[in-house]
């Protein structure tokens, strides 16, 4: 599994959330996408965190080359107050605990 956490400050993220959330189903439908979420930071309301889980690195790289990635960047980048920090990890699932 390939995981990416993208963290960035934004001038005013709240008005953007409906547009970002509307784009999620198309990204989640991409080949190899296991999950894609937008998170907020309760201690820093001006920050957004994008959590990606992909089947593997090539699937994630396909997303980076996609029109969905370009459109999301065009939406988010103008309001970023600092460059995004992207932590990318290869992970092996150990166990899934529910309940």
TrEMBL record:
PROSITE patterns: ABM (PS51725). Residues 1-89 form the ABM domain. GO terms for molecular function: monooxygenase activity. Keywords: Monooxygenase, Oxidoreductase. It comes from the Bacteria. Transmembrane segments: none annotated. This is Antibiotic biosynthesis monooxygenase. It holds the Pfam family ABM. The keyword Oxidoreductase applies.
């Amino acid at each position: 599994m390939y995981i990416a956490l993208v963290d960035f400050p934004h001038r005013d993220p709240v008005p953007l959330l409906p547009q970002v959330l509307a784009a999620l189903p198309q990204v989640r439908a991409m080949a190899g996408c296991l999950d894609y979420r937008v998170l907020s930071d309760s201690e820093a309301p001006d920050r957004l965190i994008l959590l990606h889980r992909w089947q593997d690195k090539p699937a994630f790289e396909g997303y980076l080359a996609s029109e969905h990635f370009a459109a999301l960047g065009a939406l988010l980048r103008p309001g970023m107050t600092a460059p995004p920090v992207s932590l990318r990890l290869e992970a092996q699932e150990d166990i899934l605990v529910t309940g």
